[in-house]
Amino acid sequence: MSQRYKKTKATDFIKIDAMDLPAYFISDAHLGIEPPGAVPDREQKLIQLLSSWKGKASHVVVVGDLFEFWYEYNYYVASAHFDLYRAFAELVESGVEVHVLQGNHDFAYGDFFPKRLGVAVHKSLVLEIQGKRVYLTHGDGVPKSDRGYRFMRKVLDLPLNRFLFKQIHPDWGMALARFVGRNSRKYGESRVIKVDEYLEWGDRMLKKEHCDFCIHGHHHISGIWNTPNGIVASPGEFIKKPAILCLENGGLKLVSL
């Protein structure tokens, strides 16, 4: 039976009864743009993937940046993704627990996903499943060099700034966000990703949250790494080289699509 969830602001803890069904984790699809080298029709491929899990998964978690940009108005959501919304709703109706984490591109979720689709929205999340504790968050702001980003994120997330942005016509707001996103992406492509910083942070979170797995996204690098306090993993991205993580029988594996 499907359930409805409320949007959450802090780390949530949800215990799920042990099941034989696998759990799946996806990250960084950045739907709404088609950068050079992207897999053709990847949103449709994601919809097909979600549909294939109906009744066949214990839960599905999107680990941030599902969209290149997301903002909710009182009477408007992005119409280009209606088939995706329906796929999420049908997944929930089939009995799958579905969670979406806020990313650095889509942090401004409102009530649409929880109230209309039955999909829970979190900043971070702890799941207990298959006898394992899993800590999940997008992973933005982790590198020491992200001080500027951490400051800007707080500024953009201020209630006043959200209110002011809502006064812009949705079409103009989307165009502005995509313009900023393109320039940010060009800057980001030239940056060196220091995976060790993510592993050190992930290991600290494993200890702090008493978890077996730390799953994050953001840097678009897929992998599973052993650390002193457990396992840190990332699905990678769903743009050029789509991959997912699968938790089955208490073990985590990376699946390239």
Task: Summarize this structure briefly.
This protein is α/β, with parallel strands linked by helices. Helix content is 32%, strand content 22%. It has seven helices and twelve strands.
Description:
The chain is built from seven helices and twelve strands. It has helices at 42-52, 82-93, 112-117, 147-156, 159-166, 170-189, 195-209; strands at residues 12-15, 23-26, 59-62, 97-101, 120-122, 124-129, 132-137, 213-215, 223-227, 230-234, 243-248, 251-256. It has a six-stranded mixed β-sheet, with helices on one face. Helix 1 (42-52) packs parallel to helix 2. Mean pLDDT is 86; it is low at 1-9.
Which keywords apply here?
alpha/beta, 7 helices, 22% strand, disordered N terminus
Average of the residue pLDDT scores:
86
Biggest beta-sheet profile: 6 strands, mixed
Structural class: alpha/beta
Q: Total strand count, please? A: 12
> What is the first-to-last residue Cα distance?
30 Å
In helices, the fraction of residues equals 25-40%
Query: Which regions contain 5 or more consecutive residues with pLDDT less than 50?
Result: 1-9
Strand content: 15-25%
Shape call? globular
Number of helices: 7
What pattern of helices and strands is seen along the backbone? EEHEHEHEEEHHHHEEEEE
Alpha carbon gyration radius: 17 Å
What's the arrangement of strands in the largest beta sheet? 1-6-7-8-10-9
